Amino acid sequence: MFDIQNILRENIKNLIPYSSARDEFSGKASVFLDANENSFGSPLGENFNRYPDPQQSKIKQRLSLIKGVPPRNIFLGNGSDEAIDILFRAFCRPGIDNVITVPPTYGMYQVSANINDVEVRQVNLNPAFQLNMEAIAEAIDDNTRIIFICSPNNPTGNSIDRDDIQTLLTNFNGLVVVDEAYINYSRQKTFIQELTEYSNLVVLQTLSKAWGLAGLRVGMAFASEEIIEVFNKVKPPYNINEASQQLVLKALENIEQVNNWIRQTVKEREGLTAELGLLDYVQKIYPSDANFLLVKMTNPVFVYQELVNKEIIVRDRSKVELCEGCLRITVGTPEENEILMNALHSLISKI
Ligand SMILES: *Cc1c(COP(=O)(O)O)cnc(C)c1O
């Protein structure tokens, strides 16, 4: 049975969190002399002389309606990367505990683990880019705190078998983190609706991809109230700045625009898949539930360089285990995709 008390670090259990001026008084008032702000104003106008809402209540209320989950089950971070870092700091004892990752996958789990001096047990995906359940079971020991699953997975693009993730959620006594950064491009169901079923589930999503707000740095974690309380205890008090909060609130009103972009991206993804398949030096295009394609080809490094020479930048993943020979190509606008395809066509006789 999962019990958060069994994995929460002692220092976090006993932590008295920082109490900000805005935490201690949040009612209606006209004169605020409690936070040592500049009372005259900000050079930018707006409310930028005031500290932002530490709990980001307005954004959470709006997200709650969009995602169908109560605000108390939502954490907002300075990118999902902040949520990943907090998971390590709250639940993993440096030098003692370990986590499991399933490469090839998103690199931040490993980097965050290294920064926090936490051992990473890598259990490679199988050649179909699915979980090796037996090897994961073998890698788990009494000090395993978190299993990170990215679905749809970066850089392979496929979704991970839902049944396998549910098997982990049921049988593992630590946290199962399902990173859904690319869920908007997938036909798979989000795991957010499973939060009531699994107390050890943490779902990560982000405004950086489909929502088109990578520059604002806002990521989301969805989990039980208990887990979200831990996140809130550990996070810096004002982790989402006022400019980002204002702009995110505005952006969340544009859900139709975003849904439109998602439909266009999926259509472009299918178009690119068909066209890339016609190139003789392309060996394989992996099925994608995301806004990018993993493409295996002859001489990927040459192709990468030739594209750079034409000022087109894709991601060289050809040295990554299980992605040998592959470039990762983000789906662009129709115009960008045409430029890309023209460039790739011009290489046919050179490879
Ligand atoms: C892009 C991406 C993120 C987003 O990170 P942010 O810090 O929210 O920008 C998270 N997870 C994966 C797998 C990603 O590819």
Helices and strands in order, then pairings?
Elements: H1 4-7, H2 10-13, H3 21-24, H4 57-67, E1 74-77, H5 80-91, E2 98-101, H6 108-115, E3 119-122, H7 133-139, E4 144-150, H8 162-171, E5 175-179, E6 201-206, E7 219-222, H9 225-234, H10 242-251, H11 255-276, E8 282-285, E9 292-297, H12 300-309, E10 315-316, E11 326-330, H13 334-345
Parallel strand pairs: 2-3, 2-4, 4-5, 5-6
Antiparallel strand pairs: 1-7, 6-7, 8-9, 9-11, 10-11
Helix pairs in contact: 5-6
Q: What is CATH's topology name of the largest domain?
A: Aspartate Aminotransferase, domain 2
The name of the CATH architecture of the largest domain is 3-Layer(aba) Sandwich
Strand content: 5-15%
Looking at CATH, the homologous superfamily of the largest domain is Type I PLP-dependent aspartate aminotransferase-like (Major domain)
Number of strands: 11
Task: Specify the number of helices.
Answer: 13
Bound molecules: pyridoxal-5'-phosphate
Strand numbers in spatial order across the main sheet: 1-7-6-5-4-2-3
How far the N terminus sits from the C terminus, by CA atoms, comes to 56 Å
Give the % helix. 25-40%
The CATH C-level class name of the largest domain:
Alpha Beta
**What is the arithmetic mean of pLDDT?**
97
Largest sheet: 7 strands, mixed
Shape estimate: globular
What is the radius of gyration? 22 Å
Number of domains: 2
Order of helices and strands: HHHHEHEHEHEHEEEHHHEEHEEH
Poorly predicted runs are: none
Descriptive account of the structure:
This protein has 351 residues and is an alpha/beta fold. 35% of the residues lie in helices and 15% in strands. The protein contains 13 helices and 11 strands. Helix 5 packs across helix 6. The chain is globular. Pyridoxal-5'-phosphate is lined by residues 79-81, 106, 150, 154, 179, 181, 206, 208-209, 214, 219.
